[in-house]
Amino acid sequence: MSVLDQVAQVTAIASTVVINQGLQPRTQSGEQISAQVIHISSNADAGPLLSQHATPGQLVTLNLADSHPLLNLLSALPALSKSPLIINVAYSNLAEALAPRSVVPFILHSSTPQQIYDNALLASRLASSANRSVLHLFPSQTSSSAIKTLDNAAIASLTKSAGSGPANGTADADYYNAAAAATSAATGRTLESVSSFSAAEAAPQTAFVTLGDQPAIREAVSSDPSLQLVQVSLLRPFPASSFTQSVSASATKVVVLEPIYKQPIKWTPVYLDVIAALQDRESRPAVKSAAHGSLPTSSSEIASSLAKVSQELDQQSSAGARPVLGQLPSPESSATPTSISVPKHESSYTKLLDHLFRDRLEVLNDPSLVSQLGDVATRPEYALGRARALVADRDSLIEAVNELLDAAGSSAVVSKELHNSLTKWLANKDDPSLSEKAGKEIVAALESHPPSHPATTRILELKQHFPATSRWIIGSDAWSYDLGASGLHHLISSSLNVNILLIDNTPYTTRNAADPSKRKKDAGLYAMNYGEVFVGSIAVYSSYSQSLQALIEADKFKGPSVILAYLPYENEETPALTVLKETKLAIDTGYWPLYRWNPTREDEPFFLESEAVKADLQEFLDRQNHLSQLTKSKPELATELVSSLGTKLQEARKSKAKQAYADLLNSMEGPPLLVVFASDGGNAEKLAKRLVNRAKARGVAARAAVMDSVPLDELKQEQHVAVVTSTAGQGEPPQNARDTFRALNAVAARGERPFEGTFKYSVFGMGDSHYWPRPEDAGYYNKPGKDLDARLEALGAERMAALGLGDDQDADGPQTGYKLWEPTLWKALGVDSVEVLEAEPEPITNENIKIASNYLRGTIAEGLKDTSTGALAPSDGQLTKFHGIYEQDDRDIRDERKDAGLEPAYSFMIRVRMPGGVCDTKQWLAMDRIADERGNGTFKLTTRQTFQFHGVIKKHLKPAIQGINKALLDTIAACGDVNRNVLCSSLPNLSHLHSQVYEYSKRISEHLLPQTTAYHEIWLDKKLVAGEAVKDYEPLYGAYYLPRKFKIAIAVPPSNDVDIFANDVGFIAITDEKGSLVGFNVTAGGGMGVTHSNKKTYPRTADVLGFCTPDQAAIVAEKIMLTQRDNGNRADRKNARLKYTIDRMGLDKFKAEVEQRLGWQLPPARPFEFTSNVDKFGWNTGHDGKHHFTMFIENGRVQDEPGKEFKTGLREIAKVHRGTFRLTANQHLILSEVDDANLPEMKRLLHKYGLDNVSFSGLRLSSSACVAFPTCGLAMAESERYLPILIDKVEAICEENGLRNDSIVMRMTGCPNGCARPYIAEIAFVGKAPGSYLMLLGGGYHGQRLNKIYRENVTEPEILAILRPMIKRYALERNEGEHFGDFVIRAGYISATKSGKEWYDGMGGEGEHRERA
Question: Is residue 966 flagged as an active site residue?
Answer without folding.
Answer: no
